[in-house]
Amino acid sequence: MADVKTRESILSSSTEDAILSAAAEVLERGGVAALTTRAVCEAAGVKSPTLYHYFGDKDGLASALVRRGWTEFMARKRAAPDTDDPMTLLRNGWDQAVDFALKRPALHALYAAQLRIQPELANEAYALMRGRVQRLVDRGVFKVAVDEAARAVWAGCNGVLALTGRGLSRREIEATSDLLFDAVVARLSVANRS
Fold this sequence. Notes:
By secondary structure, this protein is mostly helical. It has nine helices and no strands.
């Protein structure tokens, strides 16, 4: 009996993974508008009742796709850094976010849409960034309160991420990213800003 349940669990997991992988391909190939249950079922080679069994509906599928992509992204962000310099860590985190949005623009657009419905999706990323900002405040590099600095860093990076859907080249977005990061860091590093 245990072997049957194990086999069913493996089949269930592989079917769910196959549907999510097909959905990711459909999404990246055609954008958010192309992510239909019909297109995903066709790409995954399953019937719509199977998709509905695992994800409920298109919104459930989109949510699962975002969670899967976000889990992969956060695993890379949490990976053991090769430095303990908080400024380098902050910059690496910023660059990872921009790179993710540039490499997976449709998934990033879907994530941004999901974020409006589920703002808690960003909690872990914000906490990780805030911890790095805290170290910069503690070391006296940033001359403002940690929450003020964290909001500025978050807003600056998300401003860059908003450019990914504007049809700009990677080079233009990266140049803007460099400019904004440097500007935010410079401003946060000034003691008397009044």
